[in-house]
Backbone:
């Protein structure tokens, strides 16, 4: 009886050691997933590149997911967070849209919607503002993991670099 009790205790102790050391995959994923505050990234863009100044009649910050849906047809169900500004002038096409999607399917939906917006802006510029066409033609929707972003601005190369560095 003593042998059975001693053997049982030994097995339980070994099992406890393995359980305690295991850790879950979800814990490891959350440690490795980078958390980026997109509002801070947008504020950094504004402070470093002065894109929200009077030369573009000021940019309108999108405050709600309803506004994001209205201008970009991006559903609130597909996003974790976003930060976006767009020109309030019909003469300027400056836009910065930063979105963190919930998952890979949402990333694909958001890329499609932002590409549709970009195509529409290109079409409008060809008709009314030919000088903006080169900026719009150089613009593209970019992704980094679950982050999707679009920058339409003459400084977009530098702004895209800032975003990429923030998402590393």
Residues:
């Amino acid at each position: 009886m003593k042998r059975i009790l001693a053997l049982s205790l030994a097995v339980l102790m070994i099992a406890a050691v393995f359980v305690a050391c295991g850790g879950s995959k979800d814990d490891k994923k959350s440690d490795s997933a980078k958390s980026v505050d997109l509002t801070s990234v947008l504020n950094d863009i504004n402070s470093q590149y002065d894109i929200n100044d009077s030369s573009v009649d000021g940019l309108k910050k999108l405050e709600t997911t309803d506004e994001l849906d209205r201008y970009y047809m991006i559903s609130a169900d597909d996003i974790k967070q976003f930060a976006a500004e767009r020109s309030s002038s019909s003469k300027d096409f400056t836009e910065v849209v930063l979105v963190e999607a919930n998952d890979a399917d949402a990333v694909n939906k958001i890329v499609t919607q932002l590409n549709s917006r970009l195509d529409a802006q290109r079409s409008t510029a060809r008709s009314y503002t030919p000088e903006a066409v080169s900026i719009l033609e150089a613009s593209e929707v970019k992704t980094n993991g679950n982050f999707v972003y679009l920058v339409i601005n003459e400084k977009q190369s530098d702004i895209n670099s800032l975003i990429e560095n923030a998402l590393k």
